[in-house]
Amino acid sequence: MANYVYGDSCVSGDDKYVIAQFRHDAPMEWVAELRAVLVKDELKYKDFQPKRHWLQSNKPLWKRVTAGIERAEITIVDPFEYQDSVLFDLKERGAEAGFDYDLQMVYEMATDALLEDSPLRAAQMSQYDWLMSRFTSRTPGDFSTASIRKRIGGKRKDAVITAARAHAMVSPSEKWDLIRITSGFDQPNMMESIRIIRKMGRVFDIEHTPSVNLLNEFSDRIAEAAHLPNLAFLKGSCRIVSEEKSENIDHIQGADIAAGWAVDTLMFTGGDYRVLAKQFAWVSANGVVIPG
């Protein structure tokens, strides 16, 4: 699947959701080497982690492994940052705990906020919906936050996975490109729009089918807003987002190792994103790029 990016995830002890990704052209020979050394049919971080010190004794192998892992791109969603932001905003407006709001209300508002802060915001802002409903017989899909939550499962976990996958598909700068496409103003030209949408292609490990369906509908929405609804590589059987079993895909197995490695780094550094950014090719947290 040329030009696709492959990803897998891990959750930290303080509920940060971490996705690691490798581009299709990243060298992954180190994955097969690790499988052979660990005598495993499928490489998983739970098998790799206890053997780290032993593997380090094989310096040539360890050098290839660390060089391979450094190519991973890390995307993090931390729901508690949104809770802190919601609480701060409520207090700034003079709201009183136990009277104007309770913990459940903060929890729900933060869950909505993390979805609204994701690239899915571009679909919520689409001016194309108005044109489509006015001049065609099609009814645009509902991309309101309430509808998204219902369609992906309704729970905080569903929202975190969906938002993280959306962030993983679209970098912070590219998010504004999507908003340009869907706003109807200052749209990129056709070739640039095609490039932007094709870069969204992702293959994740099997974990959360509802988010896959939603993100494919999201990519269709962007294509329609860019007036590209009939391009075969954007629609139909060639879906932008899919889930595949990791057992036959070295890129996803490598992403499992990189995601676990990133979570351990966060644990040992007290959640210092700057340390993480020095270890990996690219790191973002809640849609903000962390400088390396």
Structural class based on helices, strands and sheet pairing: alpha/beta
The largest beta-sheet arranges its strands as 5-4-1-2-3-6-7
Report the span from N to C terminus: 30 Å
Assess the beta-strand content as a share of residues. 5-15%
* Overall outline: globular
**Stretches where pLDDT falls below 50 for ≥5 residues?**
130-139, 232-237
Topology pattern, helix = H, strand = E:
EEHHHHEHHHHHHHHEHEHHEE
Estimate the helix proportion, in percent: 40-55%
Instruction: Please count the beta strands (DSSP E, at least 2 residues each).
Output: 7
- Compute the average pLDDT: 88
Q: Could you say how many structural domains there are in total?
A: 1
Measured on Cα atoms, how large is the radius of gyration?
20 Å
Count of separate DSSP helical elements: 15
- Sheet having the most strands: 7 strands, mixed
Structure description:
The chain has 292 residues and is an alpha/beta fold. It has one domain. 53% of the residues lie in helices and 11% in strands. The protein has helices spanning 29-38, 45-48, 52-56, 59-69, 79-92, 103-116, 121-124, 128-135, 145-152, 156-169, 172-183, 190-198, 209-225, 250-268, 273-279, and strands spanning 5-11, 17-23, 73-77, 202-205, 241-244, 282-285, 288-289. It has a 7-stranded mixed beta sheet, with helices on both faces. β4, α13 (209-225) and β5 (241-244) form a beta-alpha-beta unit. α1 (29-38) packs across α4 (59-69), α5 (79-92) crosses α6 and α6 (103-116) packs parallel to α10.
